[in-house]
């Protein structure tokens, strides 16, 4: 019985050791990603400063350096970087892509058609519709949806209404 207990403890210890190793690897990967982001921020700040200077000086043409910085840091580029990182992390919360899940097309849990409503409180009788949206099951798992109508009043609650799965 003691040998059995020791064997179980050894097995649990090995499992914990592997989990600690995985967490440490994930921590190192996150540090690396943060360092990458940290390297991008000064470039963005420089681009913004150059734009301010050019606008304030009334220049009609941007210099080549500023154009290249803006192209490299376009909203679409940043959006793609964030999407890729979130998709990798969200695969199974380990920071590693879950190829088995994606290759099997496991996006069936996502609602196909849905609408988003804003409410000022729980008793709001006239909620505000931000729009109706469709999730593309053949597209990437992480998708963005532009709101169809802007609303500039403080809303305390957001309601997602699933129309069709």
Automatic annotation (TrEMBL):
Keywords carried by this UniProt record: Membrane, Transmembrane, Transmembrane helix
Top-rank taxon: Eukaryota
Pfam families: Sad1_UNC
Locations listed in the record: Membrane
Segments traversing the membrane: none
Domain SUN: 103-155
Any GO MF annotation of the entry: protein-membrane adaptor activity
Entry GO terms, CC: membrane; nuclear envelope
Protein name in UniProt: Tetratricopeptide repeat protein 39c-like protein
Organism whose genome encodes this protein: Lasius niger
UniProt lineage: Eukaryota, Metazoa, Ecdysozoa, Arthropoda, Hexapoda
């Amino acid at each position: 019985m003691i040998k059995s207990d020791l064997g179980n403890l050894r097995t649990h210890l090995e499992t914990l050791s592997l989990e600690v190793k995985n967490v440490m690897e994930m921590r190192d990967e996150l540090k690396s990603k943060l360092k990458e982001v940290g390297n991008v921020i000064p470039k963005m700040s420089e681009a913004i400063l150059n734009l301010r200077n050019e606008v304030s000086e009334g220049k009609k043409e941007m210099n080549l350096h500023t154009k290249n910085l803006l192209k490299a840091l376009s909203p679409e580029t940043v959006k793609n970087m964030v999407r890729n990182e979130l998709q990798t992390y969200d695969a199974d919360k380990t920071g590693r892509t879950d190829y088995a899940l994606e290759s099997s097309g496991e996006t069936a849990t996502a609602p196909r058609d849905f609408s988003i409503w804003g409410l000022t409180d729980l008793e709001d009788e006239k909620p505000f519709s931000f729009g109706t949206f469709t999730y593309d099951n053949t597209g990437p798992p992480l998708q963005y949806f532009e709101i169809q109508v802007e609303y500039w009043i403080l809303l305390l609650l957001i309601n997602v209404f699933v129309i069709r799965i």
